[in-house]
Design goal:
Strand order of the largest sheet: 1-2
Number of strands: 2
Helix content: over 70%
Order of helices and strands: HEEHHHH
Largest sheet: 2 strands, antiparallel
Strand content: 5-15%
Shape: elongated
Radius of gyration: 16 Å
């Protein structure tokens, strides 16, 4: 699970890094009094939130297929690639019950 947390942090960091290099997304807004946020902050937070879905789906695959984290993530990534979707989108479908795990595990 640490691997997924590290990936999530790196993905959020890449969102911030890209925005810094582009110079975009620095429109500052107020969340609350004396609490400011930019579009980049929102994008990074959204990226981290979507990774929670990935973690939950990976755990579900691990439990059902009796495999380790790396193999569960490979199964998830393979399903995403074969359906031309992001791993986050497939994760959301798995958790909603719209993407049957037996179909995933059949490979």
């Amino acid at each position: 699970m640490l691997n997924i947390a590290v990936r999530a942090a790196r993905k959020a960091g890449s969102v911030i890094n890209r925005a810094t290099l582009d110079g975009a997304g620095f429109e500052v807004r107020t969340k609350q009094q004396n609490d400011f946020v930019t579009r980049v902050d929102h994008a990074a937070e959204e990226r981290l939130r979507s990774r929670r879905l990935l973690l939950a789906a990976t755990l579900q695959i691990m439990n059902q297929a009796q495999v380790g984290e790396a193999e569960a993530f490979r199964i998830l990534r393979r399903a995403a690639m074969s359906n031309r979707q992001t791993v986050e989108a497939v994760s959301a479908q798995i958790l909603a019950g719209d993407f049957p795990l037996p179909r995933l595990l059949a490979g």
